[in-house]
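Thread: Modeling a multi-component assembly for a lab meeting

Hi all, long-time lurker, first post. My supervisor asked me to bring a structural picture of a complex we are working on to next week's group meeting, and I have zero experience with this. I have the sequence lines for every component (1284 residues in total). Could someone generate the structure of the whole assembly? Inputs are pasted exactly as I received them:
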Amino acid sequence: MFKVTFTFESGEAVEAFATSGENLLEVARKTNVAIDAPCSGNVVCGKCRVKLVEGNVVSKKSSHISEEEFAAGWRLACASTVEGDCTVLVPDIAAAYKSRMKVADLSSSDEIRIFETAKEQISEAGIAFTNNLSRISVKMNVPTLDDTMPDNERLMRAIKAQENVDIVHLPYSVLRKMPDVLRESNFSVTCVIGKTKNTIFVYDILPENDESAICGLAIDIGTTTVSALIIDMETGKILGKASAGNGQIRYGADVINRIIESQKDNGIQKLQDAVIKETINPMIAQMCASAKIKTRQIYRMCVAGNSTMNHLFAGINADPLRMEPYIPAFFKTNSLYASDLGITVHPDAHIIIAPNIGSYVGGDITAGTLVSMIWNRPEFSLFIDLGTNGELVFGNSDFMMSCACSAGPAFEGGDISCGMRATDGAIEACTIDKETMEPTLTIVGDPGTKPVGICGSGIIDVICELYLNGIINPKGKFVREGKRIKRDKYGMGSYVLAFEEEAGSIKDVEITEVDIDNFIRAKGAIFSAIRTMLTALDFDISMIDDVYVAGGIGSGINMQNAVNIGMFPDIPIEKFHYIGNSSLSGAYTMLLSKEAEKKTYELAQNMTYMELSAVPGYMDEFVACCFLPHTDANLFPSVVLR
Amino acid sequence: MFKVTFTFESGEAVEAFATSGENLLEVARKTNVAIDAPCSGNVVCGKCRVKLVEGNVVSKKSSHISEEEFAAGWRLACASTVEGDCTVLVPDIAAAYKSRMKVADLSSSDEIRIFETAKEQISEAGIAFTNNLSRISVKMNVPTLDDTMPDNERLMRAIKAQENVDIVHLPYSVLRKMPDVLRESNFSVTCVIGKTKNTIFVYDILPENDESAICGLAIDIGTTTVSALIIDMETGKILGKASAGNGQIRYGADVINRIIESQKDNGIQKLQDAVIKETINPMIAQMCASAKIKTRQIYRMCVAGNSTMNHLFAGINADPLRMEPYIPAFFKTNSLYASDLGITVHPDAHIIIAPNIGSYVGGDITAGTLVSMIWNRPEFSLFIDLGTNGELVFGNSDFMMSCACSAGPAFEGGDISCGMRATDGAIEACTIDKETMEPTLTIVGDPGTKPVGICGSGIIDVICELYLNGIINPKGKFVREGKRIKRDKYGMGSYVLAFEEEAGSIKDVEITEVDIDNFIRAKGAIFSAIRTMLTALDFDISMIDDVYVAGGIGSGINMQNAVNIGMFPDIPIEKFHYIGNSSLSGAYTMLLSKEAEKKTYELAQNMTYMELSAVPGYMDEFVACCFLPHTDANLFPSVVLR
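Re: Modeling a multi-component assembly
Sure thing. I ran the full set together rather than chain by chain. Output:
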């Protein structure tokens, strides 16, 4: 056994043991050292760069590491095997996805406005915001030698009489507390109940006048990012909000790599653990601590995610999703409870799952469609969710059609050498001076935060600025030279947004031609999907009344720049609306309102799914889109170089 | 920290660590070294005798250890504290209750005849032996690109159409397996289902033509002994049978001590773990291994036990059972599932609990009453369950009355210095020659097994023989001398059944005046309960048509000897019937037959409970019974000395 020491920019270090010849990325995974591996360790993406400080590691060379970098110690963890004791530096950027969980400061109204707006709009459409969770006071006669009815019968009879129902369920969790709570409260208690027609399910038994909030948990499980809200189910108030990188990132950036990884030994369990034990449970713990509630006060959950995320979350084999005929295990299910999945909330908490409508259009989209409100308007609207998959819904109150395109993780900073999530240190916006080519950066985080990498909205800006300033050509190749333009030995260019000394990183923060190429393919996938779907419906771009943009790309997205690079159609900019994380907003509304939940099932039922790859001409359309802004400049009349 | 080495007669040894002054019994408990402590470590029962081999232990003296024994190293573990490294010998008899689990050899028809008889008799009374578990074949269309219904919907629709029901529940355990089983079996599968009116609960999904048995588990949780059967739910065939000491024994011999122990820190969990994790789960594992079935094939359970055992099994506070007004948490409950309690069978297995009818008359008696058949006959029958508590039911097809008396654990060998359960090495029967006073012993186990201790039926025989041969007087005091009569320095006598050199033990197997006194009180409790209940009903002993005797005392019980010592009424011996472990037989029938389950609830509902301690004259009656056979010899006309 050899000793592997992982050190970090913070100065911290973690020790691990490895057998001779063991893969360095695998050693990191089993030690829970976060190293992103969007390509799942297949020497493709080049994100798992680490620096060998000392010791014995044997690495294959790869195009991701230049000769100079190799000489300086840079290695791909996935292409390296341990052959002796060694010390390896893991740069912050290598774990940018798995960056620290962020619990929101709810004193800022910005954090919750978007959810309140969703709730208001849905209410205005006539959907009642009621759910069947409530608290009741139950008073019983105190038992005596002449009244020896057992506790459970006493409690059930009192509830039946008071609530006028025939069936009362006391689950084990309640049965177990019951004798003590009844006696401590002298047989006057508070019960948290769920009432359905003739039946009451007792979730909890509490002392008389206990006023602990009855809480719910809404979660958006993104391929890259997991976000959650804790909600007071009686008032709708948001009590906590957090987001974190999806712990599954180390098993691949996209759903296909995750599914492949899940097919390995014990893989389904590993992927489920990565999202539940490593990601969701710690988020719940932190949010509850911050909101000063107990995790057991969470009595219901609603989860929105794409079909693969839903399957892996539930620990259910997702392989059929990627194999013809692409059959999911479920579109919707009522069978899941917190205790089944080991989620650390109340064990009997029911898990509502926003319904999937196909292998590639999941609950994130149905939940998002609900809050997009496009189903409630006569105007034709386009809803775009920019996740690791790009998903689109087009329609109005009469019809809706959806499709998915595999945009890849570029919008969330994946597939980009210095890409990261929109969290502290991310460049989220950028302008570039045409003459000096010097950038002006906006960084996520407190003032003074140094740039670590670049997130989706920042990449759009950088590529737009490089293009409009004539620094790159429509194919994304560098055509100017200067201090910030680097060239490798093959002549491939890159633009340095922040030199090592300016950056909060041990490496220049830059964008390379490969990054630009990846991003152009991602934006091309979106635009070609829009065109293909509209054409199939006999619609023209000019007929779009509104565009609702959602997703982890961040509120900083500059819509004009997105049009300029040919990602969004060239229609008046006021038609674009950023609606935030609509998947999470949708989960929030489904949790709070039984009618909203029902409405979402109805939307899912009525939405037509179009399989893009089956549409003739889609690939040609895609190829034509892999250009700035498009090979057909007539589609983007408003875009002119500076 | 000091090192404590526990050695055993087998030569094995276990090491533990103890802080200075730590109680030796507590050290054994936390190390899982089995040392019986019927009095729960209160220096009362004297059962936790161990021998100090070397080292530093400080022990209080007690009447249970003579000066000579103390000098030889004998100590009570509960009265000793560790004050340095030490080695302690734990004799086999000190762990007699916690003796090894016994998996029955089902090739012997004796083992199962008693259950088959119960089933036959109940069937003859018109109760159908059907339950709602069954297997069905389900064939679905194989999905295609044109038929992309998700797996769960495909399966549910097929079941609804085929079985003509509206509701199909697919629990998480099924959802999780479903995609793989469907594809391995090309969408033709076998489902294990439970059908109720309009609803089907799918317990399992298996490959087409899978013929694994659908199994159930019946358990009798006795205070001292736990017994269980694995049953084929489709045929009723018994596939496995086992019994073991209840792991809770180390927390006290009787229910009161157990409840007191459960009130200590984390006590409820400890008591639950002792019976489930340490006792029931290992029994299930061994029975399943022996029957070659998987533990997950057990889809339903039925548990019969007294009220305290039911509560502690369910991990529910039992303290209110022993405090006025003596209110249980439940008489019956439908809320328990295997996964709630961590029982290693199918996680969705429902746990049927034989109903309690009061704090001291539990499911063991209601289940036992069912198989006693007294509810189905016009004749007046008495049903006696000789457990750690003695419980009686008297009545016929028109009425039934029950009562409980605290007989103590003597019938199962508790409260007796060399007492043990009726397992290998136990003296189960005995005759004594009037002249030579030499005993002839019958030992449980293979021929040649040496006596280790004495079980309930053996104690009845020994006391009867000692009394009829004039070796002890009606008060249980020794009145003859001889080789086998020992006297301590106070003149207290004992009778040696096997000297150390004859015994499989490191100590003489004997019965002392204290043991005899304890046993006389136990048999007195039974007889006084019979008399008191009959008198209250205006019945006379001569009006009893039949007596059904059940319990762990063993099939070896000599009814005539039990009459001779005044434990059972002096009526013709052919009226007595030993019906074995009626609690387990009852659980077996309730598991197999929904109608039998319903009948048991009905019996429980209709049975009147008499609180003996509230009946004037009961204590006088009890005192009069503490005599061989009774202070009123007219009650036992057939008993004459030899």
